[in-house]
Amino acid sequence: MGKTILKSSCFEAGCHARCGVLIEVEDGKILSIKGNKEHPFSQGFMCPKGRAFREVVDHPERITRPLMRTGERGSGRFEPVSWDRALDTIAERLLENREKYGAESLVFGAGTVRGNHPHINRFLANYGSPNFMSPINMSGGPLIMGSAIISGLGIIGPDYANTDCVTLWGHNPDQSFPGLFMNAIKKALRGGAKLIVVDPRGIRMARKADHWLQLRPGTDTALALGMINVVIENELYDRDFVENWTVGFKRLKEHVKAFHPEKCAEITGVLAEDIKAAAITFATAASAALGPGMASLCQQSNGLQIGRALTCLVAITGNLEIPGGMPKWEAPTGDYQHFGPHHDVCMNLPKEQADKQLPRATRFPLWNFMPLTIPCETVWPAMLEGNPYWVKSCGLMASNAMCAYGNSKMVKAALSNLDFLFCTDFFHNPTTLLADVILPPAHWTERDDIEDSIMQNHVFVCPKAVEPPGECRNEKEVLSDLAQRMGFEDYWETVEASLDYRLKPIGLTYQKLKEMGWYSIPVRYKTYEKEGFLTGSKKVELFSELCESMGYSGLPEFEESFESPIRTPDVAKEYPLILSTGGRNVANFHSSLRNIPSLRKIAPDPELQINPKTAQSLNIEDGEWVYVVTRRGRIEQKTRYFEYIRPNVVHIPHGYWYGKTDHPDDIMDGWQRINVNQLTDNQHLCPATASVPTKAMLCRVEKIIN
After folding, report:
1. Predicted local confidence at residue 661, as pLDDT
2. In 257-416, where does DSSP find H-type helix?
3. Taking a C-beta distance cutoff of 8 angstroms, is the pair 477, 123 a contact?
């Protein structure tokens, strides 16, 4: 057999960028993976994660056979079993618990789901459970909710390539999405586009920006309202758009009078003249693309409000649905796309059962209006206390929940309290060690898939290049087998059948798309002129009667974080520094790949970024290991002097679990000494979206006295 070249999309560790690659295969083995220079986004780029693929697939710690627990939960004792025994066990336990506790007692959880979102939702619909858990409230959900309420659009896809003003608001594409965004940003800047960066840390892009607004963490909404104030008071808004396509402008104008630049400077720590200058640059650009950080802006206790405020800013400056602004990206697959409403589990359940979805059944009524997965913060009380009912079974796919979510002590207690837990993952991690059954998944090079999530107007193919090692299997195939065992009639029998189904809107089969590499449709602009906006009024609702009817404010409001020098000054006396967490590193995708040697060299230790002046005032040296303490716990971090961070702010990365000594024995215990979610809070949530306040807390830093 000769060499073949496959066009594909890298999906290492579930990274959303999906850089285009060429896979060279000979005799059933991958010879190389290289960046595809013809790809519309990545244009030949590959990050260290993608280049480390061989270390992942051949890693000696990779799980290649199904495992069943033999010791106490958390003991780490498992034995290999056959697929039949593993799947029969899962099917029996899930059916037993449905009979005892009701279908809603099952929760599926996933991190980036490796393309399995539609399959999990269809499985749950057949089972009868409305509960598919993901970190949606930590990544994108509040922005989508906030912007959709106002405009019917989700403002997470800026058109950087054609813009006159790149605005990175809590967004660091250098590290988070280089293949997806950086070529477009570079093109815009080469063409003379202005650059605005809003970030308390001096990321690389901030240091080359025309305007760097180094705000106090947690004050983004106040800054956005202040910029709206400048735009309106200086009459820089798009008068035609505002008069013809918005409702509530007069109320918004009156509302933001309280957020004049001097007041915003007092709140945010950004100079008033800098706020004015950035707002004027944004408003006077022929087009402006605002890139919001999907994690940094959502992980605040007022996540809905920042999403609404930014949408108001984009809308009144005329940047909705224009080239170089915030287009209405339409996936070729339409409602059948990865996160499309066609796959929403609640749309495929009787209303009585759909209304049992955990956010709907608790205090988050916005979930009635949007086809989103559910936040884990509504799940843990159901596992621990039976509130509002008991969750007894859970399946986790690509989800190291104990390390990834806020308040890891609660997460561990909740998962430990389950009747039954099964996981799929490449490697053991602190979460899999709590499982009853562990299933070994295929790598992205070892399975067939398509990618259309956050892919603008494209759908890309990700074909199987080689057979998986050992007994690893495609998770879609596993779900089909499990569905058949459980008697589900409305489920795909094969992986290819499911992919053909997703491609129905464009009349392609998976095999045909595999020949093409990707498929694109034209981008439509100003569709509202014929169709209106997807709101009740068919206009942009700067004032939202929907929000007001549910008990939320009709206009975006600023609220201090649950802990801050302003809101809790007494707490600040004991914990004087502002702690922000979760900045991305290009070598890792959240908690994934922490045990890959080449990537460990790039980011070997969890590093506390601290201003040298702050560190020296505490007699702390660069590179010294220290304690970081909040009201919720204490962990160890290695200090790294960083002169471009605000003096009263420190930053800790997320996702570390492979312990300080890199020894496998550290998997269960060592992570508790270094993982930042030992310190984070998951109780003070956004009342609308359940977003978590992990970007703005209070802490202190202490020397370790031996």
Report:
1. 57
2. 261-268, 272-284, 303-316, 351-354, 358-361, 380-385, 401-404, 408-416
3. no
